[in-house]
Amino acid sequence: MNRHRSLAALLCAALLSSCQIFEKTAPRDIAGPVPANALVRFFNFGVNAPGVNFYADAAKMTAISSTTGVESTTGVAYGAVGSGGFYSAIEPGQHALMGKIAATTDKDLAIATVTTTIEDGKAYSYYLSGFYNTTTKVSDAFVVEDPYPEQYDFSVAYVRFVHAISNANPMTLYATNTTTTTETAIGAATSYKGAGAFTSVPAGVYDLNTRYTGVATNAISRTAVSFLAGKHYTISARGDITVVSTTATNRPILDNTANR
């Protein structure tokens, strides 16, 4: 009988101990605000602009990796997209978006600033544009929203046009399917600092051209650009429209960057 009573006492003690452990290790309430779902990416399309790092207020949004432990002085070069074309997450609200010189000389000098309001759930692109002034050390810049369709067809590609050439008139982007030879206008005529809506086109390979309103000749051309089904692409015009060389760095170019 005593042995049974001792066993019962041990079982009660073990149960009480386990209850105390459960109380001490019960999951805590760690609920908090849902992380922001706003995005921004950065283009250095300022003709003759130096390499830059991009900032939102005091926060660095892009940087070039270094193997020495010291920040690279290269930055995002002209014609390149920060972070390899990927978006960076940003808190919604008003921000001063900037391109700052990455080189040792004039280090962190802001050459272009755009103050804009970032909305939750939306994506944006910041363009360093125009012509960099080596005397005043300033460039032009603008921000556009990347308005993805709320519902889209995964069997087609979506393309839109951004005009980032300050000395070019409004242009319309045309895409010609190299297989069917069907030409599609990608939106309407777009002015400098403007962006068109995403237009659906069948997946395939396309020759791209921009033309001024009422003009039959092409202003800028690019051949054999592939658009994959289910993807979104931004075609951006950059450079100096007066340059006729086919090899000059500052010649007019149609840049193709996948949005997603």
Q: Quaternary arrangement of the chains shown?
A: single chain
Q: What is the molecular shape? A: globular
Share of helix, binned: under 10%
Count every helix, treating DSSP H or I runs of 4 or more residues as helices. 1
**Uncertain spans:** 1-35
Quickly name the level 1 CATH class of the largest domain. Answer: Mainly Beta
Instruction: Spell the H/E element sequence.
Output: HEEEEEEEEEEEEEEEE
Total strand count, please?
16
Give the domain tally.
Answer: 2
Strand content: 35-45%
**Annotated CATH architecture of the largest domain:** Sandwich
Largest sheet: 4 strands, mixed
Radius of gyration (CA) equals 27 Å
Brief write-up:
The protein is mainly β. It contains one helix and 16 strands. It is 9% helix and 43% strand.
Which helices and strands appear, and what pairs or packs with what?
Blueprint: H1 2-25, E1 38-44, E2 52-56, E3 59-60, E4 88-90, E5 93-101, E6 110-118, E7 123-133, E8 138-145, E9 156-163, E10 171-177, E11 183-190, E12 199-202, E13 204-212, E14 220-227, E15 232-238, E16 253-258
Q: Would you mind describing this structure in some detail?
A:
With 260 residues, the protein is mostly beta strands. It folds into 2 domains: 34-146, Immunoglobulin-like (Sandwich), CATH 2.60.40; 151-260, Domain of unknown function DUF5300 (Immunoglobulin-like). Helix content is 9%, strand content 43%. The chain has 1 helix and 16 strands. The protein has one helix at 2-25, and strands at 38-44, 52-56, 59-60, 88-90, 93-101, 110-118, 123-133, 138-145, 156-163, 171-177, 183-190, 199-202, 204-212, 220-227, 232-238, 253-258. The strands form 4 sheets. Strands 4-1-7-8 form a 4-stranded mixed beta sheet, with no helix packed on it. A 4-stranded antiparallel beta sheet has the order 3-2-5-6, with no helix packed on it. Strand 10 (171-177) and strand 11 form a beta hairpin. The longest helix has 24 residues, at 2-25. The relative contact order is 0.14. Mean pLDDT is 88; it is low at 1-35.
